[in-house]
Protein backbone atom coordinates (compact mmCIF):
# COMPACT_ATOMS: atom_id res chain seq x y z
CA UNK A 1 0.00 0.00 0.00
CA UNK A 2 1.26 3.49 -0.89
CA UNK A 3 -0.12 6.89 0.03
CA UNK A 4 1.40 10.37 -0.08
CA UNK A 5 2.57 10.02 3.52
CA UNK A 6 3.50 6.36 3.93
CA UNK A 7 3.87 2.96 2.34
CA UNK A 8 3.20 -0.46 3.79
CA UNK A 9 5.25 -3.35 2.43
CA UNK A 10 4.03 -6.84 3.21
CA UNK A 11 1.10 -7.74 5.40
CA UNK A 12 1.13 -6.57 9.03
CA UNK A 13 0.14 -9.46 11.27
CA UNK A 14 -1.02 -9.86 14.84
CA UNK A 15 1.98 -11.09 16.84
CA UNK A 16 4.39 -10.36 14.00
CA UNK A 17 7.18 -7.80 13.59
CA UNK A 18 6.56 -4.36 12.14
CA UNK A 19 9.62 -2.51 10.81
CA UNK A 20 8.98 1.23 11.09
CA UNK A 21 11.24 3.66 9.21
CA UNK A 22 10.49 7.37 9.55
CA UNK A 23 13.23 8.42 7.13
CA UNK A 24 13.08 5.77 4.41
CA UNK A 25 12.43 8.12 1.45
CA UNK A 26 14.00 11.16 -0.18
CA UNK A 27 10.86 11.98 -2.19
CA UNK A 28 9.88 15.64 -2.49
CA UNK A 29 6.37 16.25 -3.90
CA UNK A 30 6.33 18.22 -7.14
CA UNK A 31 4.46 21.13 -5.58
CA UNK A 32 7.06 21.65 -2.84
CA UNK A 33 10.26 23.57 -3.66
CA UNK A 34 12.91 23.19 -0.96
CA UNK A 35 15.37 25.48 -2.75
CA UNK A 36 18.39 23.22 -2.24
CA UNK A 37 20.96 21.59 -4.51
CA UNK A 38 19.31 18.36 -5.80
CA UNK A 39 22.55 16.52 -5.00
CA UNK A 40 21.72 16.89 -1.31
CA UNK A 41 18.67 14.67 -1.76
CA UNK A 42 20.84 11.57 -2.01
CA UNK A 43 22.72 12.42 1.18
CA UNK A 44 21.91 11.50 4.76
CA UNK A 45 20.28 14.84 5.49
CA UNK A 46 17.42 13.89 3.14
CA UNK A 47 16.91 10.25 4.13
CA UNK A 48 18.30 7.35 6.15
CA UNK A 49 20.38 5.69 3.45
CA UNK A 50 19.67 1.98 3.04
CA UNK A 51 16.78 1.53 5.45
CA UNK A 52 14.06 1.50 2.78
CA UNK A 53 15.69 -1.45 1.06
CA UNK A 54 16.48 -3.28 4.31
CA UNK A 55 12.90 -2.86 5.53
CA UNK A 56 11.56 -4.07 2.19
CA UNK A 57 13.72 -7.19 2.30
CA UNK A 58 12.63 -7.92 5.86
CA UNK A 59 8.98 -7.47 4.88
CA UNK A 60 9.35 -10.31 2.37
CA UNK A 61 9.76 -12.73 5.29
CA UNK A 62 6.80 -14.47 6.92
CA UNK A 63 5.29 -12.55 9.82
CA UNK A 64 7.08 -9.30 8.99
CA UNK A 65 5.94 -6.07 7.37
CA UNK A 66 7.38 -2.59 6.89
CA UNK A 67 5.77 0.80 7.51
CA UNK A 68 7.80 3.57 5.87
CA UNK A 69 7.42 7.32 5.52
CA UNK A 70 7.01 8.21 1.83
CA UNK A 71 8.52 11.72 1.88
CA UNK A 72 11.92 13.13 2.72
CA UNK A 73 12.66 14.22 6.24
CA UNK A 74 13.43 17.62 4.68
CA UNK A 75 9.78 17.94 3.66
CA UNK A 76 8.54 16.84 7.08
CA UNK A 77 10.44 14.99 9.76
CA UNK A 78 7.81 12.71 11.26
CA UNK A 79 10.22 11.60 14.01
CA UNK A 80 9.98 15.02 15.63
CA UNK A 81 7.21 16.48 17.72
CA UNK A 82 5.01 18.63 15.49
CA UNK A 83 5.84 21.68 17.63
CA UNK A 84 9.61 21.18 17.31
CA UNK A 85 11.45 23.36 14.77
CA UNK A 86 12.99 20.23 13.23
CA UNK A 87 9.62 18.88 12.12
CA UNK A 88 9.90 21.25 9.15
CA UNK A 89 13.64 21.96 9.24
CA UNK A 90 15.05 25.25 8.02
CA UNK A 91 18.62 23.93 8.42
CA UNK A 92 20.11 20.42 8.26
CA UNK A 93 23.75 19.45 8.84
CA UNK A 94 24.88 22.99 8.10
CA UNK A 95 22.73 23.48 4.98
CA UNK A 96 19.98 26.07 4.73
CA UNK A 97 16.60 24.94 3.36
CA UNK A 98 15.01 28.16 2.02
CA UNK A 99 11.75 26.50 0.97
CA UNK A 100 11.02 25.64 4.59
CA UNK A 101 11.00 29.26 5.71
CA UNK A 102 7.22 29.19 6.02
CA UNK A 103 4.59 31.37 7.62
CA UNK A 104 2.83 29.90 10.63
CA UNK A 105 -0.09 29.01 8.38
CA UNK A 106 2.21 27.42 5.81
CA UNK A 107 3.97 25.36 8.45
CA UNK A 108 0.65 24.21 9.91
CA UNK A 109 -0.48 23.18 6.42
CA UNK A 110 2.72 21.16 5.84
CA UNK A 111 2.30 19.35 9.17
CA UNK A 112 -1.39 18.68 8.53
CA UNK A 113 -0.54 17.23 5.13
CA UNK A 114 2.25 14.88 6.21
CA UNK A 115 2.91 14.62 9.95
CA UNK A 116 -0.62 14.06 11.24
CA UNK A 117 -1.70 11.51 8.56
CA UNK A 118 1.51 9.52 8.94
CA UNK A 119 1.02 9.06 12.64
CA UNK A 120 -2.71 8.42 12.30
CA UNK A 121 -1.97 5.65 9.79
CA UNK A 122 0.71 4.08 11.98
CA UNK A 123 -1.65 4.19 14.93
CA UNK A 124 -4.31 2.35 12.88
CA UNK A 125 -1.89 -0.37 11.79
CA UNK A 126 -0.65 -0.95 15.32
CA UNK A 127 -4.19 -0.98 16.68
CA UNK A 128 -5.60 -3.29 14.02
CA UNK A 129 -2.71 -5.80 14.02
CA UNK A 130 -0.70 -5.45 17.25
CA UNK A 131 2.81 -6.78 16.62
CA UNK A 132 4.92 -8.74 19.07
CA UNK A 133 7.71 -6.22 18.41
CA UNK A 134 8.15 -2.91 16.62
CA UNK A 135 11.58 -2.54 15.04
CA UNK A 136 12.32 1.17 14.65
CA UNK A 137 14.93 1.18 11.89
CA UNK A 138 17.18 4.13 11.09
CA UNK A 139 20.68 4.67 9.73
CA UNK A 140 23.39 7.18 10.59
CA UNK A 141 26.23 8.77 8.69
CA UNK A 142 29.80 7.70 9.53
CA UNK A 143 30.62 11.39 10.19
CA UNK A 144 28.56 14.56 10.32
CA UNK A 145 29.53 17.50 8.11
CA UNK A 146 29.45 19.75 11.17
CA UNK A 147 31.61 17.35 13.20
CA UNK A 148 34.39 15.39 11.49
CA UNK A 149 34.91 12.98 14.39
CA UNK A 150 34.30 9.49 12.96
CA UNK A 151 31.62 7.28 14.47
CA UNK A 152 33.06 3.81 15.13
CA UNK A 153 29.83 1.95 15.86
CA UNK A 154 28.49 -0.27 13.10
CA UNK A 155 25.10 -0.29 14.76
CA UNK A 156 23.50 1.55 17.65
CA UNK A 157 20.62 0.54 19.90
CA UNK A 158 18.44 3.41 21.12
CA UNK A 159 15.65 3.61 23.69
CA UNK A 160 14.04 5.99 26.12
CA UNK A 161 12.59 4.55 29.34
CA UNK A 162 11.72 1.10 28.00
CA UNK A 163 14.98 -0.78 27.48
CA UNK A 164 13.57 -4.32 27.62
CA UNK A 165 14.25 -5.15 23.97
CA UNK A 166 17.54 -3.24 23.93
CA UNK A 167 18.98 -5.30 26.78
CA UNK A 168 18.22 -8.47 24.80
CA UNK A 169 19.39 -7.17 21.43
CA UNK A 170 22.75 -5.66 22.39
CA UNK A 171 24.46 -8.96 23.32
CA UNK A 172 22.97 -10.64 20.25
CA UNK A 173 24.45 -7.95 18.01
CA UNK A 174 27.78 -8.11 19.82
CA UNK A 175 27.82 -11.87 19.25
CA UNK A 176 27.86 -11.09 15.50
CA UNK A 177 31.27 -9.46 16.01
CA UNK A 178 29.89 -5.94 15.62
CA UNK A 179 30.90 -2.71 17.30
CA UNK A 180 27.60 -1.89 19.02
CA UNK A 181 26.65 1.48 20.50
CA UNK A 182 24.38 1.50 23.54
CA UNK A 183 22.60 4.87 23.16
CA UNK A 184 25.09 5.77 20.41
CA UNK A 185 25.62 7.66 18.11
CA UNK A 186 23.04 9.62 20.10
CA UNK A 187 20.60 8.93 22.91
CA UNK A 188 17.07 7.68 22.37
CA UNK A 189 16.10 9.72 25.41
CA UNK A 190 16.52 12.81 23.22
CA UNK A 191 15.34 11.63 19.78
CA UNK A 192 12.65 8.97 20.03
CA UNK A 193 9.41 10.74 19.09
CA UNK A 194 7.70 8.06 17.00
CA UNK A 195 8.50 5.28 19.45
CA UNK A 196 7.64 7.47 22.44
CA UNK A 197 4.24 8.13 20.92
CA UNK A 198 3.33 4.73 19.52
CA UNK A 199 5.31 2.30 21.67
CA UNK A 200 6.35 3.69 25.05
CA UNK A 201 3.08 5.56 25.64
CA UNK A 202 1.10 2.41 24.80
CA UNK A 203 3.32 -0.20 26.46
CA UNK A 204 4.19 -1.79 23.10
CA UNK A 205 7.57 -3.58 22.94
CA UNK A 206 10.00 -1.95 20.54
CA UNK A 207 13.63 -2.10 19.49
CA UNK A 208 15.32 1.05 18.18
CA UNK A 209 18.18 0.27 15.78
CA UNK A 210 20.53 2.64 13.93
CA UNK A 211 22.79 1.03 11.30
CA UNK A 212 25.81 2.94 10.05
CA UNK A 213 25.10 3.88 6.45
CA UNK A 214 28.23 2.42 4.90
CA UNK A 215 27.03 -0.96 6.18
CA UNK A 216 23.84 -0.80 4.10
CA UNK A 217 24.60 1.40 1.09
CA UNK A 218 24.91 -1.58 -1.27
CA UNK A 219 22.59 -4.48 -2.16
CA UNK A 220 24.97 -6.96 -0.51
CA UNK A 221 25.04 -5.01 2.74
CA UNK A 222 21.29 -4.53 2.68
CA UNK A 223 20.70 -8.25 2.23
CA UNK A 224 23.17 -9.09 5.00
CA UNK A 225 21.56 -6.70 7.47
CA UNK A 226 18.01 -7.70 6.53
CA UNK A 227 18.83 -11.30 7.39
CA UNK A 228 20.64 -10.31 10.57
CA UNK A 229 17.95 -7.98 11.85
CA UNK A 230 15.14 -10.38 10.98
CA UNK A 231 16.88 -13.10 12.94
CA UNK A 232 17.71 -10.92 15.94
CA UNK A 233 14.31 -9.20 16.04
CA UNK A 234 12.62 -12.60 15.98
CA UNK A 235 14.79 -13.80 18.86
CA UNK A 236 14.03 -10.66 20.86
CA UNK A 237 10.29 -10.95 20.21
CA UNK A 238 10.33 -14.61 21.26
CA UNK A 239 12.27 -13.84 24.44
CA UNK A 240 9.88 -11.02 25.34
CA UNK A 241 6.80 -13.12 24.67
Strand order of the largest sheet: 1-3-2-6-9-7-8
Rounded mean pLDDT is 95
The geometry reads as globular
Q: Whole-Å distance between the termini? A: 29 Å
Beta strands, count: 9
CATH fold node name = Aminopeptidase
Largest sheet: 7 strands, mixed
* Residues in helices, as a percent range: 25-40%
CATH architecture: 3-Layer(aba) Sandwich
Text of the CATH class: Alpha Beta
InterPro entries: N-FG_amidohydro, UCP029730
Protein name: N-formylglutamate amidohydrolase
Organism: Novosphingobium bradum
Pfam families: FGase
Overview of the structural elements:
The chain has 241 residues and is an alpha/beta fold. It has one domain (6-240): Zn-dependent exopeptidases (Aminopeptidase, 3-Layer(aba) Sandwich). It is built from 6 helices and 9 strands; from the N terminus they run E-E-H-E-E-E-H-H-E-E-H-E-H-E-H. The protein has helices at 51-59, 104-113, 115-128, 164-174, 193-198, 219-240, and strands spanning 6-10, 17-21, 64-69, 91-92, 95-96, 133-140, 155-158, 180-182, 206-212. The two termini are 29 Å apart. This is N-formylglutamate amidohydrolase. InterPro entries: N-FG_amidohydro, UCP029730. It comes from Novosphingobium bradum. Pfam families: FGase.
